[in-house]
Amino acid sequence: MACTSLWPAHAQAPSTGIWRCGNGYTNQPDPGQNCQLLESSTITVIEGTRVQQNGAAVAAGVRKPADLQVPTAEQQRRDARSRQILQAELDRLLMQQRSLRAQWNQADEAEKTRLRLPLERVEADVAAVQREMAP
After folding, report:
1. Global model pTM greater than 0.70
2. Residue 60 has what DSSP assignment?
3. 25: helix, coil or strand?
């Protein structure tokens, strides 16, 4: 009997209307949040996408793994071309690294501060290309 009087007034009566609580909207506001009752306005409800009920509806253009296999000779040509590209990139990076190290060796402290980040970047790039080329 006395317990019912301890419940907040909004818990006894159902709340009507739409409440905005921060960035969310609800019809059951939380008393701990700073919620504001919205004026009656048009509310748009957007339906979500429907989930397919069975696996029968598969896209017609989906390939099977056997269709994706490349002939051995073609794959070897691709691998060789990839290796050529990586080797060219590595050669370019090593030349850039040598140039930056030469500048570093002749630089004063202010210049070394400016060269530090580019040199670290080139060294990281060299290491990455070498890892990519590793068998």
Report:
1. no
2. T
3. strand
* Lookup: tokens for 113: 């501060």
Residues 96-134: pLDDT tens digits?
999 999 999 999 999 999 999 999 999 999 999 999 999
40 token code pair: 């009656």
Q: Measured between alpha carbons, how far is 36 from 18 in angstroms, rounded to an integer?
A: 9
Q: Are 83 and 68 in contact (CB under 8 A)?
A: no
CB-neighbour burial class of residue 31 (10 A; exposed 0-12, middle 13-18, buried 19+)? exposed
Q: Pick the more confident residue, 128 or 32.
A: 128
Structure tokens at 63: 């390939």
How is the chain split among helix, strand and coil, in percent rounded to 5?
A: 55, 5, 40
- Provide the 8-state DSSP code for 106: T
